[in-house]
Amino acid sequence: MQQWARFAIIGAMLVTAYLLILAWQKDYGHTTSAPQQQNTAVVSRDVSADLPNSQNTASTDMPQANAAAPANTTAAPVSQHLITVQTDLYRLWITPKGGDIVRLELLAHDESKGSNQPFVMLESDNKRTYVAQSGLIGANGPDSSANGRPDFEVEKNSYTLNDAKTVTENGKTAKVLTVPMVYKTANGVEIVKTFTFKQGDYPIEVGYQVMNRSQQNWQGQFFGQIKRDDSVDPGKSSQGIFQLGTYLGGAWGTPDQHYNKLKFANFNDDKLNVQAKGGWVAVVQHYFVSAWIPGSLKLTQANGQPYTATLQSRRAGESMNIIGFTSPAITVPAGTKMEVNATFYSGPKVQSELKDLAVGLNQTVDYGWLWPIAKLLFLGLETFHKFLGNWGWSIILLTVVVKMILWPLSAKSYRSMAKMRVIAPEMQRMKEEFGEDRMRFSQEMMALYKREGVNPLSGCLPLFMQMPIFLALYWVLMESVELRHAPWLGWITDLSAMDPWFILPLIMGGTMFAQQMLNPQPADPMQAKVFRLMPIIFTVFMLFFPAGLVLYWIVNNSITILQQWFIAQSVKKQRETQAGT
Questions:
Q1: Who contacts 145 (Cβ-Cβ below 8 Å, separation ≥6)?
Q2: Which residues have CB under 8 Å from 395's CB, separation 6+?
Q3: Where is the Membrane insertase YidC/Oxa/ALB C-terminal domain (predicted)?
Q4: At a CB cut-off of 8 Å and minimum separation 6, what does 187 contact?
Q5: Rounded-to-integer distance, Cα 385 and Cα 369, Å
Q6: What are the Cα distances from residue 199, in Å, to 243, 517, 556?
Q7: Which secondary-structure segment (H or E) carries 566?
Q8: Where is 419: in which H helix or E strand?
Q9: Cα separation of 501 and 124, whole Å?
Q10: Which helix (H) or strand (E) holds 433?
């Protein structure tokens, strides 16, 4: 029975190691890191190329409209100047041709630890194509033109918060910046595309106003989509010989199906084609997400109402992935106007912000199959961080709280292990006495266990209890953008990265060895050798893990050592008292 307990503990450790290796490899291949981003916007390819074709959309960037576009529409000359917009959170570039966002930098997030360069979310250059597109397609939609997308007129080519207006909503005052773009047709239809930015907020409202001054009804559809190639995820972190990261690909959700993944390779085979009111589509990467959330439609003086959008995905060419939405067909009678909008989000995966945008969008912070435990751990970390102001100390306090919660269960197990250590000499005597008579030895050993109140399998319980917590915390550290580049103290400047000096893994190995010395030693020589090697194996293994995870293990082991020592002393005194009487 004791041998089975040993094997169970070794098995639990190996299972933990195996699951963590799987976590490393999940959704990632062997790819190289993206080169350093540039400071200026460079558009080296025409992101508006391949206009929609109502007969064949297999190779087009634009979605297919419900009605064919007229063939005689002409497009205005293409402007060579990009529109720059800078807020407190963004620096982005919009092309007047079609009004697409072709580059977006996150000013609150560094490209890498210690870098003065902002993290580049969207871009279109010789390294990567990742852009946000929107427009009007259909019978009269300018983006359905056979000769190209519309070239909007703009008041100026640069906007900052100095151009914003102060707006008060729900008792809160904030600066709101609007960037209008105008397109006029020869028959009297005026289309105004507007980007609206709010100070302190990542969501961008993208809206169209169609003023139909012609003699004919105007018909079209609003679309929004994200186009990305197959390039690697610049948000993942390189950790020595391992590539640590999470899911890179498409995602979508509806009020009925909150969160669904769709890998780039499956954009055609498992093509998305779902109608929903209140849905969303996104491209997810490590720490960051870009998403379109369909908004509302207002005809003339009627109040805006949410519209039912069609969520879609497709591949364009050999390496371009497109996921987006289209609105229902819209008819604007002559002499009236229409307004339609959607929300575009491109930034960090902050759960508190994403959950208010659309149902299920916050689940792009993917904690895997242990998400219930991971969410509780993150909630605890977030709570402690509010008054500690440091994520490292928050991890330490969280570990202490978890150990206190598990103390009653682990105490019973450690007491049983301490008793096994005390009765180890008696077991050795029995083994020598009964020699090769294994059946008699097993009977006497079980009788001893029963007499002393010892459960040989109890040693597995603490490890089995820690496994899901350990794995869940791994995903919290790897998926929570709040801990990206978060320092602790001294040489630990990034808790989500490995210890650059390997000091924490060595300390962890020392605590694991000390803990092992408090456990009853295996009687079998081979098992004893394996157990002596475990601290060394796990020390090497943890060299490449996030420092925050190693810190958790150190604190957990340290508290366990104190708990085991205290219980061992209590059992020893109790044994001596019984022997004295």
A1: 51, 69, 73, 74, 75
A2: 381, 495, 548, 551, 552, 555
A3: 391-568
A4: 214, 215, 216
A5: 25
A6: 35, 58, 42
A7: helix 547-580
A8: helix 391-422
A9: 37
A10: helix 424-434
Same domain, 356 and 381: no
Both 343 and 401 in a single domain? no
Instruction: Copy the structure tokens of residue 128.
Output: 């990567």
Eight-class DSSP state of 58:
T
- Which residues are bridge partners to 316 per DSSP? 320
| CATH number, position 117 | 2.70.98.90
413, 418, 419, 420: CA torsion to nearest 10: 90
Cβ atoms of residues 127 and 241 within 8 Å: no
365, burial (CB in 10 Å: exposed 0-12, middle 13-18, buried 19+)? buried
Whole-structure pTM value: 0.81
Cβ pair 392, 492 in contact under 8 A: yes
Torsion, Cα of 455, 460, 461, 464 (10° steps): -160
Taking alpha carbons only, the member of 149, 190, 125 closest to residue 61 is: 149
436, pLDDT greater than 90: no
Q: Are residues 151 and 214 in the same domain?
A: yes
Q: What is the DSSP letter of 362?
A: G
CA 192 to chain centre: 35
Question: pLDDT tens digits for 148-178?
Answer: 799 999 999 999 999 999 988 777 888 999 9
State how many domains the chain has: 2
Average pLDDT over residues 527-552: 85
Give the number of other Cβ atoms within 10 Å of residue 301's Cβ: 7
Q: Of 543, 546, 533, 524, give the one whose Cα is nearest residue 471.
A: 546
- Tell me the mean pLDDT in the region 108-133: 91
Please list, in sequence order, all residues whose beta carbon lies within 8 angstroms of the beta carbon of residue 61, skipping any fewer than 6 positions away.
47, 48, 49, 50, 51, 133, 227, 316, 320, 322
The reply to whether 16 falls in a domain is: no
Task: Tell me the C-alpha to C-alpha distance, in Å, between residue 395 and each of 381, 399, 472, 508, 522.
Answer: 6, 6, 13, 15, 33
The answer to whether residue 56 sits within a structural domain is no
Which residue did the predictor score with more confidence, 243 or 34?
243
Range of weakest confidence among 17-31, 278-292, 496-510, 551-565: 17-31
SS (H, E, C) 439-451: HHHHHHHHHHHHH
| 463 Cβ contact partners less than 8 Å away, ≥ 6 residues apart | 9, 12, 13, 16
State the residue for tokens 């063939």: 71
Please enumerate in sequence order all residues whose Cβ is within 8 A of that of 340, keeping only pairs 6 or more positions apart, or say none. Answer: 207, 208, 222, 295, 296, 297, 298, 307, 327, 330
Tell me phi and psi for residue 432, to 5 degrees. -70, -35
Give per-residue burial for 163-172: e unless 16+ CB within 10 Å, then b.
ebeeeeeeee
* Separation between Cα atoms, residue 323 and residue 318, nearest integer Å: 15
Average pLDDT (117-144) is 93
Both structure tokens of 240:
């020595």
Classify residue 380: in a domain, yes or no. Answer: yes
Residue 481 domain boundaries: 375-580
Strand partners, 392: none
Of the candidates 288, 254, 245, 252, the residue with the CA atom closest to the CA atom of residue 267: 252
- One DSSP character per residue, 105-124 reads EEEEEESSTT-SSEEEEEEE
Q: Which two tokens stand for residue 457?
A: 């399998």
